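Supplementary Note 2. Why include the ligand at all?

Several targets in our set were suspected to adopt different conformations when bound, so apo predictions alone were not considered sufficient. For every target with a known small-molecule partner we therefore ran a joint prediction. The input for 3-methyl-2-oxobutanoic acid is given below.
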Amino acid sequence: MTDTAKPTSPESAKGTSSKDRVLIFDTTLRDGEQCPGATMTLDEKLAVAELLDAMGVDIIEAGFPIASNGDFEAVAEIARRSKRAVIAGLARAIPADIARAGEAVRQAPRGRIHTFVSTSPIHLAHQMRKTEDEVVEIIARTVAQARDLVEDVEWSAMDATRTPIDYLCRCVETAIRAGATTINLPDTVGYATPSEYRAMFEAVRERVPDSDKAIFSVHCHDDLGLAIANSLAGVEGGARQVECTVNGIGERAGNAALEEIVMAIRTRADVLPYATGIETQMLTRASKLVSHATNFPVQFNKAIVGRNAFSHESGIHQDGMLKHAETYEIMTPESVGVAKTSLVMGKHSGRAAFRTKLTELGLTLADNQFQDVFDRFKALADRKKHVYDEDIEALVDENLATSRD
Ligand code: KIV
Ligand code: ZN
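The joint prediction is reproduced in token form.
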């Protein structure tokens, strides 16, 4: 699926088809890399950024330039090499951070400064030790500073979902007045429910003057396993940018997974009138690359890119799959870059799948031989976790040897 026109304003986010274009903002190299143990080398970051750019990611958040010289260099080099994507650098609402982020993205054909500040009472009281008025003043000053450096400025209200709506609207209004072109309302601690998250976007977009001058963005963490549901709800509430990471890596329980949001939008096009510009056949490659670069394994049952996502072991499912792929698969493996569905041979497998496996292995058996080999296979599968092709070939040899005796 491709819809490569790149919207640069809320109006062009409408797209040319009846589907609204949803921008994919990948933060694997920033929020993803922030989780314990996921640090990547410069070369690994460059390889990930190159693949994300080729895959059609609209905005790549390449790092947090003030965090270290290494992070600055990575963002600057990714900015220099970028072809299609906007390259973003993160900055706290601190003048030195913003200046450093501006310098890092300067050489990108399209650079963005992404600046953020906390807005919730708990963060204001305990982390920032600032009053609401002081934070509003900081937003006005820092967004304007960023806007003096680049055309494309994203402002995020950290912990937006635990911020009273009146104050959140005041902050958003201030950021838009100061020149923010994207407004991100993150569920920083993964606390919101889908209906709450959607309602927050609807309320802010309705109440803030000139809200249509900015693109609204979702950024969801997965502490309650709701990151994808919340992201979709935010889009239904009017957001047109989704922030996500490959394999869902990120702080604590992670961020919304890029591959999941993209395939949900593609697979449920019947009820979700949106489109992304992602080449979905590259999703599995991206997952493997990020897993390799971060040393984070992908859980076997991970949606879309897990090893079992297109594998079937139970006899009933295998039988259905042999009759029609749509019986137990809602998307094709090819659509996400997996060569084919696999029917895994195990104790739950049935005759139909076993016969197909024998044919794939080039083994043709008479009916009486088949029954014997099938019985041997079932007995073996009860004893052994994985039954490999070699095991099945050995069972056939055993059958032949016994029938010769
Ligand atoms: O989760 C969060 O609030 C963030 C911000 C920096 C956008 O990652
Ligand atoms: Zn985050």
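The longest strand covers residues 111-118. The mean pLDDT is 95. Comparable summaries for the other entries are listed in the accompanying table.
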